[in-house]
Each structure stands twice: as C-alpha cells, then as structure tokens.
Amino acid sequence: AHRGRPNDLRILETLCCCQIDFRFLDNNPSRALARARALIDYWFAERTNDTRAIAALARWQLACDQAEAAVETCADLSETTESPLLLYQLGLAYRETGQHQRAVDAFSRASQLKPDASIGGQSMVAIFAARAASLFAMGQTELAQRDLTQALQASTPQTWTFFDWYSVVAAQRALGNSQQGLLWCQRFIETVPQCGQSWYLHGAMLIDLGRQHEAQTDFIKAIQLNASDHKPYAALLRTYLSSGDIANALNWADRWTSVAAESNDPYRWRGLFHYLAKNYEAALRDLNTAVRLEPQDTRALYHRARTHLALKLYQDAAQDFDQSLQLNPSDTE
C-alpha cells in the first residue's frame, strides 16, 4: 500500500508503527527498526513538523531503549500539543526515566483529548493502565487501583487491541496483583495465542507467585514464538540460576547467542554459567565479548573479575573490580 501511495501519511504511519511494535516477529529485529527509522526520516522529509511523525520517532526511540532521547524529542511540544499519541509516548518516556509525576501529568492530559486507537497504543485502556503503574511507583496505591479499574471499564475486552491487553496485564503485575493479573493474562493468551509477550508476562507472574517450574514452560513458549526477544531468555536463565540447573542454562544461553550475536547480554549470562561450571577459559572468552560489546556493563566486569581470580590473574581481577566500582560505587557486592 505504501509503494502504491507513498505520500499517504496514514499508511506510512501504520507501516512505521508495525515495523516498531512487531519487530520481534522479524528474524532480525534490528533490521525492522532500521526500516522504521528510514520511514520516519522519509516522513520528516515530507512533513517537517508533523506531530504524529514526532510521536513515531519517540516510539522508535523507546523501542531502542533511548528513553531520555524520547523525552527530548517530545519536550518542545509537550506544553502546547493537542496530540494524545504524543503525550502518551512522552508519558512512557518519563516513566522509563523514573519521572513518574511527569508521566502521570502527560497521561492525564492524553486522557482528556479523546485518544484515537486506530493505530494502537494510545487508547483509554492503555493510558489508564500506564498511569496506574506510575501512580503505584509513586506510592499512590489507591489512585493506581482506581485507574486500573477505569482501564478495565473503558471498553469491553472483546474490542481491546494487543496494546490494551499488554498494558492491562503489565499494570496488574506492577501493582502486585499477580494472582488477578494471571487470570487476565490467560485471557490475553486466549485472544492472541501466537503472541510471545503474553506468554512472557504469564511466566513472570507465575514467578511472582513462586511457581518457577511452570514459569519455565511459559518462557520457553515465548522464545519459540519470538526467538529474538531478549526478555524471556533472561527470565528463563534466572530460573535456572536459582535452581542451579547449569546444563539447561548453558543450552539456552547458546541459543540466545545464536540469535543475538551483537548483544552483550547473552554472552554475560553464558559467561556466568561457564564460571559456575568451572569452565573458566570459556567464561573468560564470553565475558571478554560481553565487555567489548558494552564496556560499561558492571555485571560483566564483576563476573570477569571473579573469573580472573579463579584463573589467578590477580592484577586483571583488581582492574575489573576497580572499574566496576567506578561505574557503580553503590554496588555493595
């Protein structure tokens, strides 16, 4: 549709948002994000100050873990905009940077502007659920519960988008309602059974309830559906770390590195499990890669320092401990 009508901004917006929001359905999420950024650049070339283009850029930045950049993108228009989509993205950016009062203010303004959910992600359900999570983070439990109730009553679940389901379930978990959230997540799975993120959230709430073995099954299902999503890998490996199941941990860490060779996370995790298995040379190789990919990863530096100690490389260990402390002086470990 975009090729046939390249100047139709509604089609352009839909395509851009699909590339961002469903990137994990691509075997290469980075490629999907690169395509989305190219569309955004084209969009800006057509309409320099288009509010929806600015909102799409903020959405892209949040997907790339650039929350501070997303705040800057939206900040200049935050006082004057009448776009609920822009305010919703700004609220998410504030929340990700720990500015919960500002997030609440942005979500509140968005809720007053009759959001349009045709693209998804800025419906009243999603806005109330997102505001509930920020209110709870500020200690305003009663207001948070009220917002969550409003989210559930804003429209019937039969009309909810993927974003609505995800926002409601994530808010239930944020508020500590894991038992209730589990029931909503089961309905989420029934609605979109091929969505890996629904299985991941289901597993996360099972962990909250102490049902670790069942959670492992959910995390594996999430990985099978979206092999490029990092969150279920990390969650699964935490369960193996807790149970001491090093063999299974190394197996899944190998799978993770095969689909995320340019990310330091799988190498840090695999390095840790090689260390626990006393495979110190293999641990050092992985942790060297993790530090090369992300030099300021204090956990990778700490694990490498311990590996250096095991190999009696005391000077190297001291350097890693020192660098880790400089980057994170409050880390008592």
What's the SSE blueprint?
Elements: H1 9-21, H2 29-46, H3 51-63, H4 67-75, H5 84-96, H6 100-111, H7 124-137, H8 141-153, H9 162-174, H10 178-191, H11 196-208, H12 212-225, H13 230-243, H14 246-259, H15 264-276, H16 280-293, H17 298-310, H18 314-327
In short:
Helix content is 72%, strand content 0%.
Question: Would you write up a description of this structure?
Answer:
- It is a single chain.
- The protein is mostly helical.
- Helix content is 72%, strand content 0%.
- The protein is built from 18 helices and no strands.
- It has helices at 9-21, 29-46, 51-63, 67-75, 84-96, 100-111, 124-137, 141-153, 162-174, 178-191, 196-208, 212-225, 230-243, 246-259, 264-276, 280-293, 298-310, 314-327.
- The chain is globular and about 65 Å long.
- The model has no long low-confidence stretch (mean pLDDT 88).
**Low-confidence sequence ranges:** none
In helices, the fraction of residues equals over 70%
Structural class: mainly alpha
Number of strands: 0
Shape: globular
Provide the succession of SSEs.
HHHHHHHHHHHHHHHHHH
